[in-house]
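Example S7 (structure tokens).
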């Protein structure tokens, strides 16, 4: 039985971490797989040769270090190890047939080199598509062939085609440090120095002003700061500025003020910003904490000593990606349990929401998402690899057990047949299919379509210059939520009763097909 708290766990594997120079931390190991703190030996018990075990696994954010141990051994000894990480208040029981079953209130991680794994030796942890399984209470792995049993909940991940025309920068840290300054330099290369840049923040002081001053120091001449909250959602001056801008930087916004109050306020400024995201080529930068906003789901409570994440709706600019920034926040202070939430919350969000790609950023890297031809790409920059989890089809379940048998379980989840990667700076990878919404918009003429009121509440009126044949409405994820073919001839005006159970408050696209084979589209907001 492998338990997640005692040091005795580590000595049972064929290769052990000897901790000759104290502990080894993930944030350092992934940057140098030959770090002096990585001391491994295979000269002790060897109860399970070919394996390396690690304890306190999610609590201390040890995923990066365990994979670094595996890479170090392969790099220096030429042997592929299987890594097993066991959480506190968890255990893995292995029977005489080599069937390993998970018990307890945490997760058990099993990581191995597979046929599709791409490993590049070197200092930086450079490895793609490791086979990755996370067990929860009652699930098992056959250590003879690594097949998984016990998961009952089948996940059907959302793998819809990405479509935002924006180029999206996302960084792993909040501070104006070398990493974010490098991001700003890259960001500025998208356009001329005299083209407007809008910084959207909670305050015109503090970090937002620091970023403004740095952009001006780097040569930008038209930088302004705007406050995004409930009162500014309907600000016509704000809306006008947005309509004339194609470069936006988001920093130091709370998800509540920005998404619930500003975007949720459904005013003209909010509508204009959403339109900018969807209707024209823009360059967007989301700094540190605000990198969470880019996907369909925002992970809250992602920093701290406890795995108690909450999930809310994001901007859905990236339909198939959830991002955790600040993965190793406070690492330099040695409080490694503060990595508990960042490490636990990403797989939890992916399993609960059915999201294909999960990205761990840290303060020493940033990424750029961009649609290139028919693929959404992610390019990595900085000094540290980006951690990534992916799945296409899998079974997964949330943790259901508690330490004492009472109270609420941790917000953790397990799943089978995941892929785990650490992508080094300088690499670009493909994340999924892409078709810009501009490819559709370019064929339409919004001026031929009149819709009102906008924002709408219980009814939407449509007016056109030609007879209406078909009406379709899509939500911000590109999913059809309304479709009607009109059989009556000569209708150039039509009204739709909005059922908020089918069309909850949010941002929508309406597509109207006319009898002259013209397709017209428009955006509207439901309050």
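Recovered sequence:
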């Amino acid at each position: 039985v492998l338990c997640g708290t005692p040091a005795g766990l580590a000595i049972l594997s064929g290769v052990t971490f000897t901790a000759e120079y104290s502990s080894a931390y993930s944030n350092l190991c992934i940057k140098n797989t030959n770090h002096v703190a990585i001391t491994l030996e295979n000269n002790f018990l060897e109860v399970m040769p070919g394996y390396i075990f690690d304890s306190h696994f999610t609590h201390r954010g040890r995923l990066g270090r365990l994979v670094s141990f595996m890479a170090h051994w392969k790099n220096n000894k030429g042997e592929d190890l299987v890594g097993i990480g066991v959480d506190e208040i968890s255990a893995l029981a292995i029977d005489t047939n080599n069937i390993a079953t998970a018990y307890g209130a945490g997760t058990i991680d099993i990581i191995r080199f597979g046929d599709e794994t791409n490993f590049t030796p070197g200092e930086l942890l450079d490895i793609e598509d490791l086979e990755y399984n996370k067990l929860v209470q009652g699930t098992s792995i056959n250590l003879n062939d690594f097949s998984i049993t016990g998961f009952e909940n089948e996940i059907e991940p959302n793998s819809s085609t990405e479509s935002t025309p924006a180029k999206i920068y996302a960084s792993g840290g909040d501070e104006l440090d070398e990493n974010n300054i490098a991001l700003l330099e890259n960001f500025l290369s998208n356009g001329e120095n005299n083209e407007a840049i809008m910084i959207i923040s909670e305050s015109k002081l503090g970090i937002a002003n620091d970023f403004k001053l740095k952009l001006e120091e780097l040569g930008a001449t038209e930088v302004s700061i705007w406050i995004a909250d409930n009162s500014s959602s309907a600000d016509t001056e704000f809306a006008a500025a947005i309509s004339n801008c194609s470069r936006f930087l988001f920093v130091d916004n709370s998800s509540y003020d920005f998404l619930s109050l500003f975007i949720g306020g459904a005013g003209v400024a909010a509508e204009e910003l959403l339109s900018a995201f969807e209707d024209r080529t823009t360059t967007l930068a989301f700094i540190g904490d605000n990198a969470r906003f880019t996907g369909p789901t925002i992970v809250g409570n992602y920093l701290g000593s406890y795995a108690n994440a909450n999930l809310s709706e994001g901007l859905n600019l990236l339909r198939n990606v959830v991002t955790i920034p600040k993965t190793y926040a406070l690492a330099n202070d040695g409080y490694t349990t503060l990595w508990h939430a960042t490490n636990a919350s990403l797989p939890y969000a992916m399993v609960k929401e059915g999201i294909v790609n999960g990205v761990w950023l840290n303060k020493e890297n940033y990424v750029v998402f961009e649609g290139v031809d028919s693929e959404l790409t992610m390019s990595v920059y900085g000094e540290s690899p980006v951690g990534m989890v992916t799945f296409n089809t899998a079974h997964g379940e949330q943790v259901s057990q508690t330490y004492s048998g009472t109270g609420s379980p941790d917000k953790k989840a397990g799943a089978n047949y995941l892929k785990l990667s650490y992508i080094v700076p300088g690499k670009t990878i493909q994340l999924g299919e892409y078709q810009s919404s501009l490819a559709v918009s370019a064929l339409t003429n919004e001026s031929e379509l009149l819709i009102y009121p906008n924002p709408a509440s219980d009814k939407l009126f449509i007016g056109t210059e030609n007879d209406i044949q078909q009406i379709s409405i899509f939500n911000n994820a590109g999913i059809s939520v309304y479709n009607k073919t009109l059989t009556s001839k000569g209708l150039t005006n039509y009204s739709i009763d909005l059922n908020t159970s089918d069309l909850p408050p949010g941002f929508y696209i309406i597509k109207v097909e006319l009898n002259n084979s013209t397709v017209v589209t428009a955006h509207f907001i439901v309050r």
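Notes on this example. The domain at 2-153 is CATH 3.40.50.880 (Rossmann fold).
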